[in-house]
Design brief:
single chain, about 190 residues, alpha+beta, Sortase, Chain: A, globular
Length: about 190
């Protein structure tokens, strides 16, 4: 009898968690849609509240292999990373030109979305895209590296003087924060 009640309680808890993730995923999808509309310069009606959100999230990261599409915020505050990903400060934005390094961070498992939970599944040759200010930047992964937290300054060494690059950044190994996993891609196309 106790096992039956435990099983029922377990199913209820899983249902509640799924409802929370579904609600947040829909909110993220709506925010991504607004960003894409603004970047496409459509005449869609945008409220003041929407405009403020869009100013904070002017970009979108898409990683087809692991089914990720999140808004990218201009910072990595807890508030921003609770809603999507964030540009790491002291690094370039995608439009910086040759030799720039863009670093995009997200949690691996946040309370409201999965973040970069499956980032470790990316490997050489996989692709990801960053929509930034109406332009889509396409990257192809060439390197995956784990860096101890004590050596985070070495991230700057991933930059190339001749190639624009982007690195996806998250805690590693899951669920610890001992290291940071970086998946690095070279810019291969812009449209």
């Amino acid at each position: 009898m106790k096992l039956r009640y435990c099983l029922i309680l377990f199913v209820i808890v899983i249902g509640i968690i799924a409802a929370i993730f579904n609600k947040t995923s829909e909110e993220q999808r709506q925010l991504v849609d607004r960003i894409e509309k603004r970047n496409a310069k459509t005449d869609a009606a945008i409220t003041d509240e929407d405009a403020n959100k869009i100013l904070l999230a002017g970009a979108v990261i898409t990683i087809p292999k692991i089914n990720v599409e999140y808004p990218i915020f201009n910072d990595t505050s807890d508030e921003s990373l609770a809603k999507g990903a964030g540009f790491l400060e002291d690094f370039d934005r995608p439009d910086a030109g040759k030799g720039g390094l863009t670093v995009i961070a997200a949690h691996r498992l946040w309370r409201t979305h999965l973040g970069f939970l499956r980032l470790n599944e990316l490997g050489k040759g996989d692709t990801f895209q960053v929509l930034y200010q109406g332009v889509t930047y396409h990257y192809r992964v060439f390197k995956k590296v784990a860096i101890p937290v004590s050596q985070l300054e070495t991230i700057h060494d991933l930059a190339s003087p001749t190639k624009s690059r982007a690195a996806l950044y998250t805690c590693h190994p899951f669920p610890t924060t001992k290291e940071r996993l970086l998946v690095v891609g070279d810019l291969v196309a812009v449209d």
